[in-house]
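__Record contents__

***
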Amino acid sequence: MPNPILVFAESKDGALKKGAIEAISEARRLADALKSEVVAVVIGNNLGNTAKEPAFYGANKVLAVEGAAFGYYTTAPYTKAVVAAFNKVKPDAIIFSATLNGKDLAGSVAGAIGTSALQDVVALNTADGAITAKRPVYAGKAIITVKAVKAPSVISLRPKMFPAATADQAKQASIEKLDVALDANDQRVKVKEVLKPSTAKIELTEADVIVSGGRGMKGAEHYKIIEELAGILKAAVGASRAAVDAGWRPHEDQVGQTGKTVCPTMYVACGISGAIQHLAGMSSSKCIVAINKDPEAPIFKVANYGIVGDLFEVVPALTGELKKNQG
């Protein structure tokens, strides 16, 4: 039997992130094709039932790394934990979700074990017993097929590009504690506190619907109309780089090449012209709706639906109609 596939199962607040479930599910599909097994590694402090979350969506085994030093994500301790899991199971591939932490960790782990990282992958296949990956290049203008020149393959998967298994599709995974000893060098960086927003926000990379505003919003005070539409749609609120650079929205809301790459079911772009940097972060959305008063705006070239008009008239009208339909 081929060596197993190892998956870093990222968790938050005692539950697996959606991207982690997608990564485990895709690893299960590949393992079935390769006649192999899936081993997931979950890392944190006071994991509780996290390591038992619905049978781990198809993993055969769960390695649980637990300790106070793993309470918040920092690169060195988490790298050492994943490398320890790698040394234990000798996998043919290590899969991560391409979240901010996942991409950082994938690169660090690849460096630690002396191989390369295939980042932000949008499709995986098997050929002659090897895993091949497709990933966007040139700001999303082209897709290339690549594979690691040296085993194991270290791969991060773009969130919301891969189907996630449900709990009833999985069998109970065995759970094993994995002890990882850290030295002073591993703990040079410590996170003392994480400040959370006063109101709960939907994470952009996990959102099914995103409503974003750009330079056309003309100021931070006007984002309330975006937030109202997002509330009706149960959507996350995003922003272009121009809006973030102007100080209208925090950087965590930025969608684009230097922000977050998203793939929601629907992306509503309000007052966003469609610069290549922004398109690189959202062009893989299932359905794109563009609202812009400039009929020549590049955003319309990638949009499934476009409205040429003043967003300050269109967005409130759209919100009003949605409210009527809800009623």
Summary: The helical segments are 18-34, 75-89, 100-113, 223-233, 241-245, 276-282, 299-302, 311-326. The longest helix spans residues 18-34. The radius of gyration is 21 Å.
